[in-house]
């Protein structure tokens, strides 16, 4: 059975941020936006480094706190969706499906 660790969720966020930026580029070109997204991702990874291989509720709480600290989830759809997937993982234990 596949386990969704903190590192796995951060890897998913990396791809989601890239896809989101690609969509925005068509309407709102900005060569700096993705750099800001990934700068915040690196800060989030650093804040979660001690729990990156874990998949328990406490580790997910650390991840969610870091996401709220370094992003504004209500204004950034990929982060908001990821937080929803984290909550679903914690409550159901089912690994979220991505790439549809």
Task: Describe the fold and architecture.
- The structure is a single chain.
- This protein has helices at 6-27, 33-47, 57-70, 77-92.
- It contains four helices and no strands.
The H-and-E topology, N to C, reads as HHHH
Rg for CA atoms = 13 Å
pLDDT average, as an integer? 92
- Coarse morphology: globular
Give the helices and strands, then pairings.
Blueprint: H1 6-27, H2 33-47, H3 57-70, H4 77-92
Helix pairs in contact: 1-2, 1-4, 2-3, 3-4
Brief account:
The chain has 100 residues and is mainly α. It has helices at 6-27, 33-47, 57-70, 77-92. The radius of gyration is 13 Å and the shape is globular.
Spell out the key features of this protein:
100 residues; 4 helices; 67% helix; mainly alpha
């Amino acid at each position: 059975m596949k386990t969704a660790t903190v590192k796995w969720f951060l890897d998913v966020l990396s791809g989601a941020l890239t896809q989101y930026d690609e969509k925005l580029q068509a309407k709102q070109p900005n060569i700096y936006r993705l750099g800001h997204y990934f700068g915040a991702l690196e800060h989030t990874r650093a804040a979660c480094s001690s729990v990156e291989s874990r998949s328990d509720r406490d580790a997910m709480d650390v991840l969610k706190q870091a996401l709220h600290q370094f992003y504004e989830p209500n204004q950034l759809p990929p982060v908001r969706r990821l937080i929803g997937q984290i909550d679903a993982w914690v409550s159901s234990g089912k690994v979220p499906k991505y790439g549809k």
